[in-house]
Amino acid sequence: MGTEVGLFLAEQGKEVVFVEMLETFMNNVTFDEKLVYEERFKNLNVSIHTGKRLESVSDQGITVMDRYGVRTTIPADTVVLAVGFRPNRDLIDSLRKVPKLQVFEVGDCVRPRKIFDAIHEGHLAAKLLH
Q1: How does pLDDT run along the chain (130 residues), one tens digit per residue?
Q2: Which neighbouring-strand residues pair with 63?
Q3: 66 and 14 assigned to the same domain
Q4: Rounded to 5°, angle at Cα 27 from 5 and 64
Q5: Residue 82 falls within a domain, yes or no?
Q6: What are phi and psi of 20, to 5 degrees?
Q7: 18: nearest Cα among 82, 112, 68
Q8: Number of folded domains that form the chain
């Protein structure tokens, strides 16, 4: 999600700074997707800081810290946080309480993923109805 938002902003002419806690960037995308993103980022005003975590946000920008405790302040006037997803299980949990109702878990109620996963699981669930 953060990669897409950053790309959208960069394509509007904004300077974009990515901060990633892990040592590599774009960890949850396929190899093909990564190639496409890298090509689109190539001529945009984008910088990537890996191995750092956000420590604070202030009027001056953001302060990040690496694994050695070294702090760096990066100037910023706008901050977008993309910190992951959790499944919303409210509907599936309430449907499971209905007697004799056949319920299948597909898509993001299982865990947040790509649309392909939801379509594939929905197809498999539909095949079980015959």
Answers
A1: 788 899 999 999 999 999 999 999 998 788 998 999 999 999 999 999 999 999 999 998 999 999 999 999 999 988 888 877 788 899 999 999 999 999 999 998 888 888 889 999 999 999 998 7
A2: 56, 73
A3: yes
A4: 70
A5: no
A6: -125, 130
A7: 82
A8: 2
What order do you get walking across the sheet with 61-66 strand by strand? Answer: 52-58, 61-66, 71-75
Tell me: do 7 and 69 sit in the same domain. yes
Is there a domain that residue 85 lies in?
no
- What's the rounded Cα separation, in Å, for the pair 22 and 52? 7
Give me the domain span that covers residue 99: 90-128
pTM of the model: 0.65
What CATH number did the domain enclosing 71 receive? 3.50.50.60
Q: Are 44 and 16 in contact (CB under 8 A)?
A: yes
The CA distance from 43 to 10, in Å, is 10
